[in-house]
Amino acid sequence: MAEAHSAVAFSFAITHEGWDVNFDREVLNLVWQSGIRSWKKRFARFMNSVHNGVYPAHLWTLWITMCITSAIHFSGYKVPYDLVTKVMPLLPGSCVRWQLIGSMLAAMGLWLSVIFTMRYMLKLLLLYKGWMYESRAKGSKPSTFTKFWLLVVRVFSGWNTPKLYSFQGSLPKLPLPALHDTMTRYLRSARPLLDEDNYKKMEGLASDFENGIGVKLQRYLVLKSWWSSNYVSDWWEEYVYLRGRSPLMINSNFYGVDTIMMDTDKGQAARAASAINSCLHYRRLVERQELQPILIQGLVPLCSWQYERIFNTTRIPGIETDKIQHWSDSNHIVVYHKGRYYKVIIYKGRILKPNEIQEQIEYILNDASEPLPGEEKLAALTAGERTTWANARRVYFNTGVNKISLDTIEKAAFVVTLDDVPYEYDSADPTKLDKYGKTLLHGKGYDRWFDKSFTLCIGSNGRLGFNAEHSWADAAVLCHVWEDVIMDNIDKRYENDMKIKDVTPPTPMRLKWDMKSDCQSVIETAVVSANNLIADLDLKIYVHDAYGKGFMKKAKVSPDAYLQMALQLAYYRDSGKFSLTYEASMTRLFREGRTETVRPCTIESSEWVKSMDDPKISTEERIRLMQAACVTHQKGYQDAMCGKGIDRHLFCLYVVSKYLEVDSPFLQKVLSEPWRLSTSQTPHGQTGRIDLKKHPKCISAGGGFGPVADDGYGVSYIIAGEDVLFFHISNKRSSNQTDCHRFADHIRDALADIKSMFVEPPKQNGKA
User: Fold this and answer.
1) Half-sphere exposure of residue 335, counting CA atoms within 13 Å on the CB side?
2) Any idea which residues carry the catalytic annotation?
3) Which of the 8 DSSP states describes residue 239?
4) Which UniProt keywords apply (predicted)?
């Protein structure tokens, strides 16, 4: 019946007796409700736009201004700048009615002038980044200037409650660094990686570039920085992500893991329903802009631009370049289980409650039907080469039921996969956690829709995870969603809704496919390609519970810098050399900011690493060298966040050179260098809802990604509480130079050696 309802909602025929009209009341009611919901959302978007447009002021201040201005005018006094008198000649009359209109127009002019002055002043205030460089050590206080700045920012932004996008118009643009500054920073970062001869050659290339073609390229980039809201983000999205033709699976997509130290007391259907409902409520918060923007120290806003595309978003493959397609609304999700795709309506006058969604999930789990030909492994196309998928999409999915079903998947709020394997963690058997990570990163190669903004994955034992496409946003945004999903499970909101059920949830509908033998052959080829990628990947999730952030703070060292130094030491011991290292930082202090690269391999860090295996160096000297390296690293991280990075500037210069068809030996050399150690820290505690004192085991293991270089490592880590660290380490089996299990051992030893260095008597000699 569900298929029939979806096929025919209204029909008519002409007979000898007249008109014969048939219609399905239920489907027409759904259409009516969809229309009402659409208009409600349009009105809400309009009201939010007004709120954001006048922020930090209140809209009601306009009516007060109009009343005061009119009262002043009709009392015989002049309003400021005598605006009413200046407005009146522009109106067709001078009677009381037109004087009232003139007073209101003058009031609106005054009000708008104040509003735009406040917004511009707030933008100027947010340009100040000096607070970033001041010490946050216990007992330290901000400078007098920073205190005054904080007070003024609070005055300008604190008298109205901001919505999600309220600060967007007040965020400053990402500043364009001076060419000389970027070249100086680059040469310093390259010094520990090059011997004397190669470094002199690089200095020559850099000097020729800075004094030659670089000047012209910088001028074009200055124009772009003036014209666009962010001189990096659009090019970064297009050329780094959308124009890439390699498979998304493993190479681009990333994954996230559940709170592994807490046992779930729900089955697969119940946990899936709870997580789906949590995601839908989060989507409503985003759509209504009721989600509070993230404020650093409760005051400095981060850009919220990326939140818009969390839901209802898909990456569409193209022959030469992909595109990100976002729909303003979607009233369904798509669920994949045992090779079958289902359309699940999740809105019926309101968002369905968890117990109602559970009924739909149980229907799918109990369905004994078989997949249609080609259906089971269809998603392997999204895992393979982008051009191959684009051609297949154009040939086999451009008409008929295949197009309808593909549209259903791509327009879904998100995709859900009900896996038939458990997601397990056992401290006595670490391989189970490794398998957990691999299952989320790639699954079987055909059971995640890798084009979708994210696929919510539920194991057969009720544990959760996700696989996310990377082009639309960075990991921190989806981690924000993930914290809400996790905390809804902790707060047991599902149990509170269990007794409430006042609608019958729509029955899930199987998607229809008509894939001929040639289409199935293309799918099987994609499966082979996906299997080859999976077979070449190795992944290790290392749980370090000997100590965590608590000890690092006692050592008076930045936890992130501490771990980056440990990774430098581990890599040096693993490979016997230093390598170009990538650490992602964010630039969301600026409008439409995404990421910038921090280069943890510095002159100071290399000196410290060498000292750790030199028995002639004292422990006191090693501590001094590490502290110096951490200070340098922290300064580099702060520079990157404040728009003073290296790599995004060089990347944009390279793009300009390609537009102008100009070759630069320096840029070609720099941008061809492989990132053999690619690292990223997973943020934790963005929502403020996670209380580790109340729920000490509410710790997500973070997430991970594949290696960037064929002979390199991908390392994601999360500082989960005071005493636990997680490292997600990936490499390619085809490289005989890398081994994630061996590297995990080096990380363990490096962390142990660093700790012993700090706890040993400061005058003791010998290896740490």
Assistant:
1) 27
2) 470
3) I
4) Acyltransferase, Fatty acid metabolism, Lipid metabolism, Membrane, Transferase, Transmembrane, Transmembrane helix
